[in-house]
Design a protein that fits this description.
Elements: H1 6-37, H2 41-60, H3 63-77, H4 81-116, H5 121-134, H6 138-153, H7 158-181, H8 186-214, H9 223-255, H10 259-295, H11 299-326, H12 328-335, H13 339-371, H14 375-399, H15 403-431
Helix pairs in contact: 1-2, 1-7, 1-10, 2-5, 3-4, 3-6, 3-9, 3-10, 4-5, 4-6, 4-8, 4-9, 5-8, 6-8, 7-8, 9-14, 9-15, 10-11, 10-13, 10-15, 11-13, 12-13, 13-15, 14-15
Length: 440
């Protein structure tokens, strides 16, 4: 990369707090797991199964953050701050309404979902308890996504960081108090999560509301605004579904390769997810900066953001890849003492290390195109990449050797074929001009 520019400083100033906020969220599950784990294996298993359902539901709704980031940033760039905050308020209403609906659905279907995921009889009760006690927090969880998107569009990633950090501390206190102090067990963990998320939503929502009032923006939901938020979010939801499908497909492949491969896959996927946080933080910076520059009609700056954030993404991928490669054997030992699983993890991590620069390229380009409001193309591209990846995944499932060698092929398919397909589709789009739509 050439000399460090003002744009580089802006990217770093946005990305670092965004990374901190992204990392703070998984701490919730880690703390809950540590506290509930003191109750025994069965409650912990119930928490693990239930938290998978909850994080999947919330993960599918991440479009609430992405859509509001792009929409608010565009309007800010166009000098229409009141419209930006109007869009943000409507995004919050959409998140709350969707959260209430999903909370009701989760309350009703909790036993069915737990059984569908294969919960044994003794695990069913704690899994259902966690789902039902955490479900009231869903409006808060989704409102946090939407409010965070609004603030990112305003180029404020520090406020979500402080709120996420405070939430992590509060959740830890509530988890210990409710689970152990008051003897609520897994239900206490779910209640603590719900209370924490609702309070975080209240704080972030208050920041957005204060900004709206300064611009004399009405706080009631607007039909046109809600329609625009739904229209912008639907393609991003479709894109997220394809990504989730690919992740599930990768897990299915590993499961078909035996217990060693599946155990190794869980460890490699955890490290992949950690690396993804760093790259996603750069994507968030790209979303906000591209949205604002396109809103201002400044194509030169948009292209500059594209070049600089791509450079940051590839460099971050190279650095992360080097760290993963150098520490592959050490990282593997953090997860297991089993020699076969240890070797499987270390070998697959080398594949991840080699492909990490590709991931850096993909994550940033995703952020650029999301910031440009190019959700429809990303939805179509998601389907195309899944279609490209699926035959490779099936081939590995059917013909790869079991254990460690098979896991290497599985990750070559996911981190190689799937990510290369994403790189090709997003890279081809970025080379053209169809995504460079200016104005609010």
């Amino acid at each position: 990369m050439s000399r460090f520019t003002a744009l580089d400083r802006q990217v770093v100033a946005l990305a670092l707090p965004a990374l901190g906020a992204l990392v703070a969220e998984p701490v919730f599950v880690l703390v809950d797991s540590a506290v509930v784990g003191t109750l025994g294996a069965t409650p912990l298993a119930g928490l693990g199964l239930a938290s998978t359902v909850l994080t999947t539901v919330v993960g599918l709704c991440v479009f609430l953050a992405y859509a509001t980031t792009a929409g608010v940033a565009r309007r800010i760039g166009a000098g229409r701050r009141d419209d930006a905050l109007r869009y943000g308020v409507d995004g919050l209403w959409l998140a709350i309404g969707l959260g209430v609906l999903l909370a009701v659905v989760l309350e009703v279907t909790a036993p069915w979902l737990a059984r569908a995921l294969g919960a044994p009889d003794d695990v069913l009760a704690p899994a259902v308890a966690y789902l039902r006690w955490s479900a009231p927090g869903l409006p808060g969880m989704l409102a946090v996504l939407a409010a965070t998107g609004v603030l990112r569009g305003l180029l404020d990633t520090r406020t979500p960081l402080w709120v996420a950090s405070g939430g992590a501390v509060l959740n830890a206190v509530l988890s210990v108090t409710l689970v152990l102090g008051l003897g609520m067990g897994v239900a206490g963990s779910g209640l603590g999560t719900a209370v924490t998320q609702l309070l975080m939503a209240a704080v972030l929502g208050a920041v957005v509301v204060r900004g709206a009032r300064r611009e004399a923006v009405p706080l009631r939901p607007g039909v046109r605004g809600l329609g625009a938020a739904i229209a912008a979010g639907t393609p991003l939801l479709a894109r997220t579904v394809t990504l989730r499908a690919a992740i599930l497909l990768a897990t299915w492949v590993a499961a078909g390769l035996g217990a060693v491969a599946l155990a190794g896959h869980q460890a490699v996927a955890a490290l992949w997810g950690l690396a993804a946080f760093a790259l996603d933080a750069l994507a968030i910076a790209a979303q906000a900066l591209v949205g604002q520059s396109l809103g201002a009609g400044d194509l030169a700056t948009t292209r500059g953001v594209l070049r600089r954030t791509l450079a940051w993404g590839v460099i971050a991928g190279v650095v992360l890849g080097a760290v993963i490669a150098a520490g592959s054997w050490g990282f593997a030992r953090l997860f297991t003492d089993d020699p076969a699983v240890h070797a499987a993890i270390a070998s697959a991590l080398l594949v991840v290390a080699v492909t990490m620069p590709i991931a850096g390229w993909v994550f940033v380009l995703d952020g650029v195109l999301i910031g440009a409001g190019d959700g429809r193309y990303l939805a179509v591209a998601g389907v195309v990449t899944l279609v490209v990846y699926a035959p490779a995944a099936v081939a590995v499932h059917e013909w790869a050797p079991p254990g460690g060698p098979g896991l290497v092929w599985a990750w070559a398919a996911f981190a190689g074929v799937f990510m290369l397909a994403r790189a090709a589709t997003t890279g081809w789009r970025a080379r053209g001009t169809a995504w460079l739509r200016t104005g609010a």
